[in-house]
Structure formats: structure tokens, C-alpha cells
Amino acid sequence: MSEDQDNLTPEEREKRDKEARAKEIVEQAALPYKWSQELGEVEVIVPVPKGTRARDLAVTMTTKKLSVALKGKEPIMAGDLCKDIKVDDSTWTIQDNEAVLFHLEKLNNQAWWENVLKHHPNIDTTKIEPENSKLSDLDGETRGMVEKMMFDNQQKQMGKPTSDELKKMETLKKFQDQHPELDFSQAKIS
User: Fold this and answer.
1) According to the UniProt record, where is the region Disordered (predicted)?
2) What's the CA angle centered on 38, arms 129 and 125, to 5 degrees?
3) Looking at the DSSP assignment, which residues form a beta bridge with residue 100?
4) Which of 142, 189, 124, 126 is nearest to 161 (CA)?
5) What's the Cα-to-Cα distance from 86 to each of 24, 26, 65, 90, 122, rounded to whole Å?
6) Among the listed residues 75, 70, 77, 102, the one whose alpha carbon sits nearest the alpha carbon of residue 87
7) 10: how many CB neighbours lie within 10 A of its CB?
8) d(C-alpha 79, C-alpha 145), whole Å
9) Exposure string (b/e) for 33-56, b if CB count within 10 Å is 16 or more?
């Protein structure tokens, strides 16, 4: 945040943010395509004349560049990508013979893109509000960890033991069953 920004009242800051957002919307609407992103991927939709088929197009998609044109015509969009993509995992297809849909897999799937092509206007990535992840999107280990945390939180709210406490109690019970001669009635377990 700039020093100038620090001196603004909350109302002035809100006004400046609204003006910046309005400018961003106008700039993005003027692009020859629409785009959206998630942390790992970018979707780009480029309108083309109705009836266009894949064979009518000249498409270039490399790690650092993207372009689409009708054969023999000026490109509809062309330039250096703002960040690198995984070409082997990225695709393009014709949608209803009136748009080219690009699915770009980000090389760095932990970074938001400011734009698609470097020479196009930027968006403010600090204002992006990502969608909530679904448990099914997570890898097995992470999903297990999240499910355990959710279970433990739910147990605590109900005043019941967490999964770790349940495990300790089960281990103690097994030990007691194996050693009935020992008296655990006065034992304090922590």
C-alpha cells in the first residue's frame, strides 16, 4: 500500500477502490475475449464468426505465447502470456462454432494472473475472492487431514473427545484388557 493510500479515510479508500474496479471492468470488457481463472487454470473464450470450424483457425499455444486467428487474417488475439503454462495439459476447442475455448493449465498453480497477455490491462489480484474448495478436489493425504480436523472440531463443539483422545482411550482399554491384574481406577491419563 502506498503512503498516499495510508493517509486516506476509509470512505476515500472505498471510493478509490470502486473507481479502480470500475476502470478494470471497462478495460476487461474491451478485450477481444473473456477470461476467468482458478488457482491452477485459466479459461479464455474468444468469439469467432458463427460457423467457424477448427480447420478455419490458426492457433498457436506455447509455454509463453498464445494466438488465435482466422487463417489468412490478422490475429484476434496474440501475444506473450503473463505467466507460463503447461502446454501438454492445456487444450483448445471450438464451442458451438462461434467461440474458441482455451483451457490453460498454469505452470505455477499457486499464483493469480493479472492478465492473460502481458500487453493487456491488469486486474487487481488482491481483490480476487477464490471459490471454496471441495473436499473431492484435494489429494488423499490433504483430504484425510481436513476431514480429521473437521471431525475433531465437531467433537470439541459437542464436548466429546477428539480423534487423538479416542485413540489414546482405545489404546488404554486394550492395555487394560491385556493386564486385568493391574488397577487403573486411580490413574490420571493425560
Assistant:
1) 1-21
2) 50
3) 46, 94
4) 189
5) 27, 30, 11, 6, 22
6) 102
7) 7
8) 42
9) bebebeeebbebebebeeebeeeb
SS3 93: strand
Domains of the chain: 31-129 (2.60.40.790), 140-178 (no CATH)
* DSSP letters for 18-84: HHHHHHHHHHHHTSSSEEEE-SSEEEEEEE--TT--GGGEEEEE-SSEEEEEETTS-EEEEEEBSS-
Q: What is the amino acid identity at position 96?
A: D
Any idea which of 93-107, 135-149, 167-181 has the lowest mean pLDDT?
A: 135-149
Query: Could you tell me how far CA 34 lies from the centroid of its own chain?
Result: 17
Residue 27 has pLDDT above 80, yes or no: yes
- Which is nearest to 71 in space by CA: 58, 89, 82, 81? 58
Residues 24 and 121 sit within 8 Å (Cβ to Cβ): yes
The 10s digit of each residue's pLDDT in 94-130 is 999 999 999 999 998 888 899 999 999 888 888 776 6
